[in-house]
Amino acid sequence: MQMVADQSNIFLESPLWKKRFPNLTAIFTTKNGGISSGHFSTLNTGLHVQDHQEDVIHNRRAVAKSSGWDLNKWIFADQIHGTRVVKVTARHAGMGTESYNEAVKAADGLWTFDQGLGLSLGFADCVPIYFAEPETGFAGVAHAGWKGSVQNIAGEMIRQADEAGVCIDKIHVMVGPSIGKCCYTVDHKVISQLPGEVSQSPGIYEQTGTDQYKLDLPELNRKLLQSAGVKDEHILLSEMCTSCHEDLFFSHRRDQGKTGRMSAVIGWREE
Ligand SMILES: [Zn+2]
C-alpha cells in the first residue's frame, strides 16, 4: 500500500482509506510546502525542536487548511516515548496547537469518539499508527518508536478501544511512513526487549554484525496488532522509509538529530 501526496505535496494519504472512509481524514505531512529554514526546511510541524514558533504555527495552519480543517479543532500531545494512551473529547480541541506547554501531557497515543477533531502527533522516523472504526466513530493515533513498539502501545490502543465498546474485529489500522528495516540498525539492548509473543516471528529482525541488528518496526507493529486481535486484512503498511525518502521526509537518524517533525493527523469530519 502506498500513501500518495495531495496536489500541494504538503501531505500524504492512502487512496484506499480515502475510498473506504470518505468522512475520515488520515494524513501524514511531508517536509515540503512550509516556511521553516535550515534543518527545519521547510514544513516542520514540531514546536519542541528549536525552530521559530511562529513558523511552526504557520506551517501547521497550512497543513490544516490544505486538508480542509481549522487548526483550532486539532489536538497535539507532549510525547515521551511511553505507552500512555489518552481519550480526548471536544473539550480538548485546540490543545497544543500553538504552544507545546498546552499539549496533552505525557501521551504517545490519542483517541476519540467525537467527530470534528484532528488528533495529531509528531514524527521523524518513529512509527505513526492510525486507527479507525466507522460504526462507533472511533479514531486514534499512536507514536511508536522502538520503545513504544516493544512496550506495545499499539496493543494498548486496541485494549482501550475494546474496553470502550469498539469491536476489535471492525478496527482498521494503517502504519504510516517510518524508518524501515533498510536503515534501522539497533543493538542487543533493543532486540532483548522484543515482546515474547513476537520475538521469534520471522522477518522482524536480522543480525548483521556483532551486536548489530536490522529491526523492522512496521512489521513488529503489524505482529502486535494481529496478536491484539486486529484482522490481518484490516492492517495496511505504507512501506515507505523516512530515511530513504530524503525528498519527502525529515529523519532523526539520517539528519543526526537536527531535523524537523512530520505530523500524523486523524479525525472524522463533522457530517
Ligand atoms: Zn530506508
TrEMBL record:
Keyword Chloroplast: no
Regions crossing the membrane: none
Cofactor: Zn(2+)
Domain of life: Bacteria
Keywords on record: Hydrolase, Metal-binding, Transferase, Zinc
Catalytic activity: adenosine + H2O + H(+) = inosine + NH4(+); adenosine + phosphate = alpha-D-ribose 1-phosphate + adenine; S-methyl-5'-thioadenosine + phosphate = 5-(methylsulfanyl)-alpha-D-ribose 1-phosphate + adenine; inosine + phosphate = alpha-D-ribose 1-phosphate + hypoxanthine
Pfam families according to UniProt: Cu-oxidase_4 (PF02578)
Biological function: Purine nucleoside enzyme that catalyzes the phosphorolysis of adenosine and inosine nucleosides, yielding D-ribose 1-phosphate and the respective free bases, adenine and hypoxanthine. Also catalyzes the phosphorolysis of S-methyl-5'-thioadenosine into adenine and S-methyl-5-thio-alpha-D-ribose 1-phosphate. Also has adenosine deaminase activity.
PANTHER family: PURINE NUCLEOSIDE PHOSPHORYLASE LACC1, UNCHARACTERIZED PROTEIN YFIH
Family to which the UniProt record says this protein belongs: Belongs to the purine nucleoside phosphorylase YfiH/LACC1 family.
Name of the molecule in the record: Purine nucleoside phosphorylase
